[in-house]
Amino acid sequence: MIYWQIFLAFFIPGILGYGGGPASIPLVEKEVVDRYGWMDTQEFSEVLALGNSLPGPIATKMAGYVGYAEGGVLGAVVGLFGAVAPSLILMIALMAILFKYKDSREVKNISKVVKPVIAVLIGVMTLDFILTSEASLGGIQTAILMVASYLMLEKWKLHPALVIGLALLYGAVTGIFIA
Amino acid sequence: MVKEQGVKSIDLTMAFFRAGMLGFGGGPAVIPIMQRDVVDRYGWLTDEEYGDTIALSNTMPGPIATKLAGYIGYRVAGLRGCLIALAASIIPTVVLMILLLGILQNYKDVPWVANMSNAVVPVVAVMLGVLTWNFIQQSEKALGWSKAILLIVVSVILLEVLGIHPAFLIAGLILLVLVPFIKRTVKRT
């Protein structure tokens, strides 16, 4: 049942992703790439790259796109519902209670203890992406592109969309050159 | 909680459309943009209410921007507001995403187009690497180095060596944290 799978693939990251959209990315990858095999790491990274260069929340853009790719318009709606609805309904329903306990140590601790786990998940994903790139472009090009984009993003604070655009241009030019 | 105050659908649509379309860099980037509309322009919430809402949505899982949009929409205009705010902030960027990726898929067999998508992977790796480091720093700030490193090592072993699904690990940790809280609350009532 594809719609049920699409729902689960985004429901689980939505309900476990403490730390907002970015925290749920590795959880989405786990479902979409590892469990259901709808995409490989390379395709997933394309979706992520484009998602990062477009405006708006990243988790919902992924849910909408993957849902659409696997199940058409209804799939997109199901994916978005899975990503957004559970935590939103929880928030609206629990608002009164949460307000009362929002300064409680334990409630604050939840997002604290989950952070290291998310760090590990994203770290492993980073490694996956580096290995994928090494397999397709080779170590030297991968290293050059990584150093260059690190400098542009973190040191010179260029806009992510611009950096992705430059990488696409680099890929096109070197691609034509190879051909 | 809900204060129906004749908030216009068109205002809701515009406010959350802007938040979705101008928020480059994902959910967190949306927060100040949304504030400009929700607090400054339309006055649906006060600064303090907005701040509380953000603090609260941080204690809940799931994407921040949509939780904010859905909740604020619900609060100022009930279910209608919730649905309008969600649709306005999500649909435009999702449609854009589907269109652009569709174009890319169509030309996948052209070698230089395929190479374009190869070249993007290392850039995303860097973005994710930076994100990893952010989460490590946040862990350190919240828990201190010794606890943070302990949790990181335990996670690596459980997730990567033993292959346990992250859902079980995260749910287990949440339960562990909440046990004293539940005990206390039950005792009090």
Automatic annotation (TrEMBL), chain A:
It holds the Pfam family Chromate_transp. This is Chromate transporter. Keywords: Cell membrane, Membrane, Transmembrane, Transmembrane helix. It comes from the Bacteria. GO terms for molecular function: chromate transmembrane transporter activity. The chain crosses the membrane at residues 7-28, 73-101, 113-131, 160-178. Belongs to the chromate ion transporter (CHR) (TC 2.A.51) family. It is found in: Cell membrane. It comes from Planococcus citreus. It is a multi-pass membrane protein. One of its GO terms (cellular component) is plasma membrane.
UniProtKB/TrEMBL annotation, chain B:
GO terms for molecular function: chromate transmembrane transporter activity. One of its GO terms (cellular component) is plasma membrane. It holds the Pfam family Chromate_transp. Keywords: Cell membrane, Membrane, Transmembrane, Transmembrane helix. The chain crosses the membrane at residues 12-34, 83-104, 116-136, 148-181. The keyword Translocase does not apply. It is found in: Cell membrane. It is a multi-pass membrane protein. InterPro entries: CHR_Transporter, Chromate_transpt. Belongs to the chromate ion transporter (CHR) (TC 2.A.51) family. This is Chromate transporter. It comes from Planococcus citreus.
